[in-house]
Amino acid sequence: MRQNIILVDDHPLVLKGIKNWIETHSHFEVPLIARTFEECSALEERFGSNFNGREYNRIDNPAQGLNPSDFVAIVDISFKPSVPPGLPSVHEENQGFEIIRSFTAFGIPCIAFSSHDSGGYVERAMSAEIGAKGFVSKTADETILLAAITSVSNGGTYIQAELVTDFIEVRDIAQTFTAKEKSVADAITLYNTNAQVAAALNISEKTVVNYLTILYDKAGVQNKTQFLEKMGRI
């Protein structure tokens, strides 16, 4: 079982409250926190050092390496850090998805933790592209978060029960997308206009409109805003 927790959230009071509750009510420890995108990057550098020891300091001691196999990360998907160079600003609100993707690549299983808890957000977080192993709403009781930590630390997955029905609905919709439809869905998350999407995918605007019509029909929505909301992309 992984015994250590990384908390990633840009709200100091949330960090302090969750850390104190976990350490008071469980055997898990919270030796690492990250409040900015830069602090997450600093952690990744330490995990990249392949250190095999088991003594951990907080994020303000970057000299010490870390072993990914000892950690589970709890990541707020509504993280609002500064946008890294080259990343479109539309991603700023949900930069937690990128943090989960990056931590997962280091072998650190992540639990998405957010007040944005619609089926679309759960589906996106748990998708193979992002890679979260769990999802818990910030409105949930602390015991549910602890249950998620316990499951994920033991190599399992966990989705808060109240979120499962909407998650399954959106997952089933997403699984009907063809590769080209998915590329358009991904592109409209990044770009504001059909012209920008067309340029990015090297297709015509008319083709973009045709694909959007299909996507909206599959999702049961009428427009781009409704689609992005339902699919957890804004």
Write a brief structural summary.
By secondary structure, the protein is of the alpha/beta class.
- The percent range for helix content is 40-55%
Beta-strand content: 5-15%
The radius of gyration over CA amounts to 19 Å
**Helix-strand string:** EHEHEHEHEHEHHHHH
- What form results from the Cα inertia axes? elongated
Separation, N- and C-terminal Cα atoms: 34 Å
Low-confidence stretches: 50-63, 88-92
Number of helices: 10
Number of strands: 6
Mean pLDDT: 86
SSE blueprint:
Layout: E1 4-8, H1 12-25, E2 29-34, H2 37-47, E3 71-75, H3 96-105, E4 110-114, H4 119-126, E5 134-137, H5 142-153, E6 158-159, H6 164-174, H7 179-190, H8 194-201, H9 205-219, H10 224-230
Parallel strand pairs: 1-2, 1-3, 3-4, 4-5, 5-6
Structural features, described:
The chain is α/β, with parallel strands linked by helices and about 230 residues long. Helix content is about 45%, strand content about 10%. The chain has helices at about 10-25, 35-45, 95-105, 120-125, 140-155, 165-175, 180-190, 195-200, 205-220, 225-230; strands at about 5-10, 30-35, 70-75, 110-115, 135, 160. β5, α5 and β6 (about 160) form a beta-alpha-beta unit.
Protein traits:
single chain; 234 residues; alpha/beta; six-stranded parallel beta sheet; 46% helix; elongated
